[in-house]
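Data card: per-record layout.
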Amino acid sequence: MGDVNRLLRLCELETGQKPQSSTDPAYSAWLKTKRPFARDEIVGSYMLKLGELCGGYLVRFNGDGTVTERYMFDPGKTWTCQWTLDEAGVIHLSCPGENERKQPVRCNLDIVASPVGAIHAGCENTDEADNPVIEHFKVFFLGPTASLPGVSETTTGAA
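The structure for this 159-residue chain is written out next.
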């Protein structure tokens, strides 16, 4: 199930309790407040990711395990990410990141589903050894259609 450090951090952010491990009772109780995502609800759908540090992104989940991602405020710029859905129904999203360094970096986001509604949550970190930051995201489920100025696609055909 996702990266335990990202999920432990998300538990801490949502509950105010800092679980020590995935066997911590506080973590187990928090996890029971979530529901699993289903592949059918994800494939062909759009989500809006809003990070507390890095801004907003529109993502479209494709049936082949890829995601088309774009900046909300520069929608002409797109890139491809990969996604998986683990056995617990947690979405794992891995995207190329931008930074001031010359070496490529991967940003990895785990998203857990709220039991009701369209606003979910996740935490992201990078594969940089010297970057301990785990960023908090709110993820808004938009469904199979999205309208964003500057974006020609508004529906998906990926199933």
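Known properties of this structure: The mean pLDDT is 85. Residues 4-143 form a domain with the Lipocalin fold (CATH 2.40.128).

See the next section for split statistics.
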